[in-house]
Amino acid sequence: MPIIAPTLGRRLPGELIFAAPRRFTALPRHGNCLSVERFRCLHTSPPLYRAPVEPPRPVRTNETRTKQRYSPRHTGSAAVSLIASAGLLSLFAGLFEPDTAPRDAPSNAPPDDRDPDLPRFRLSDVRKHDAKSDRPWVTYEDKVYDITDWIPAHPGGDVILRAAGGSIDAYWDIFSIHKSPHVYEILDQYLIGFVDSADLVDGRPLPEQIEDPFRDDPPRDPRLITMTEKPRNAETPLEELTASFITPTDLFYVRNHMWVPKVDDPDQHTLTVELLDGSTKEYTLNDLKTKFKPAKVTAALQCSGNRRKDMTTHAHKKTNGLQWNVGAISNAVWEGVRLADVLADAGFPLEQARAGDTEARHVQFAGEESYAASIPIGPALDPRGDVLLVYAMNGRPLPPDHGFPLRALVPGHVAARSVKWLNRVVVSEEESQSQWQQKDYKLFGPNVTDPDWSKAPAIQEMPITSAITAVKLGDWAPLPPETKEQNMSTQPNGNAEKTDRRSDTQVARSNSAGSAATPRGRRASVAGYAYSGGGRAIIRVDVSLDNGKTWDQAELIDDCAVQGPNQESPCSGHKSWAWQRWRYEGVIPLPDEPRGSRADARPDETKKGLEKEDQDHEDGKRCQTLLVKATDEAYNAQPEGYDAIWNARGNLANAWHRVRVCSECESKKE
Ligand code: MTE
Fold it and tell me: In the 8-state DSSP scheme, what is residue 517?
């Protein structure tokens, strides 16, 4: 029986119901329907997973430019008079070797009307001033800057050196925070000249002259659903999402804010641990692997933006950020060493601190490419918190996209704290000051559109969520219309009460076996995941096949069971860090034919006021909405809808998950 991956997002008029799983797209089509085994007809549409994402600022290409070259008006020598950065530039004048070679500029080239008192540099000159040079330079648009004196003051640290010898344009497209008058003013102080007209087309260096910050990014599995290529952001494909308890490493979702740092020799990678008193100790990868007891943890990582698209859709309101579907979550076995062990080795008074006797409040993590975040000291030191410094994932060295050679793993927390390409750990009284700690991963009320970021704490532990990842439809099954009434009796107080403990769908399923009633439903196997942060186990998953009229409990798959004698449980760690897979079988009630009004509608519904997904027909097809919601061991439950939890960043979108299923075809006796 085929597995049908449901579409889970925005529905536009005329859009259909299921995203065609890739492996079915080659099957013969009959009109709008896809014929698959006993699946008589199923409406399909092109996959809807690829949410529109904000494209990075388009880089102009040769085609979009007029191929005109400026004629050089100034090819001056080092004897230049300086304006903005007068003092600075005189220092470097002797270093300049402006190119004075004649060029074959077209006669119709626009004049170079830039400041004639500043020198022109060929890009080949700029390249000599790379990160290794004494005086690193960068270009921005057509200007050349000597950033030597800016590096110590640069808030992002020496990450700016990555652009040295080339252009910072592409980096500023990533760190768009730079694009403010304040930063331009700072940069202006370091201006030393202009890119020579011979290297400009339409006033800018050609894109191929600009080094790609993502040049070292690794190849990726094409099955991942790409949100953005540069930086790489991709979700696990739906049809694979819960196909296995442990997500295959190649299909683990990827969330990169920047490029993947190149690691030539992992043995040279060092981790610096800094304590409150400023003392530091360095560890090579080998030190970590040999000096400490290895530890394993099975844990899901989930992006705070997972299901953001769902929030946007159902709150009918824009949210900022990548419009993730339900696949920004994956589950893996992580191996490394305990953070607490390393801190103790570095001289941190662990036991004293565990007893509460410490000024330390946070542990900050910094990644090679300048990403940084922190966690509170509590979970960092908690012997049952399982915070690791990880070097292996699913039994293999970490892949480049997931932090090779070293990353932090903070299970039960938003994955933003599990810093990849980890090179620095700092025990501190303060949180990380990075924007990923101070902004971005915070939540505000549904009325707040322009938040004061300082007013909310950073997200740490994740709330409860769940999602339907697969719906497997079977044959038509009778669904006696009187099912509900049969199982209701009127109580003395006049309230109707259900006397049969089984759900309507279960009753319908059992009744349907011998019933000659008109088939009105489709047998279905539904599957998905549930997850809660803080290591809280999922205790229950409720499923509704009829848009919330009736509910039933899904089977929680016991993935942590020991598979055989001498076998280990696939779940390592002190708490429930992994996701909980679940499955459910039932009959999805589908209406017979379009009706003007629904007898079974909830009292507050009118046909006119219904959301499209609450309607039982769409373009002549019979439709139904499936729901899932989970409960964790602290009895945390998911909110019903998004209106009350909408937030401008679209973080922590964890309302009941709703999936629409439609079928237009007549049932046939099997
Ligand atoms: N660490 C670094 N160094 N750089 C990053 O961009 N992204 C964070 C976190 N750690 C990030 C990082 C975010 S927002 C998420 S959701 C997770 O990594 C994603 O981890 P993954 O790509 O291994 O799934």
Answer: S
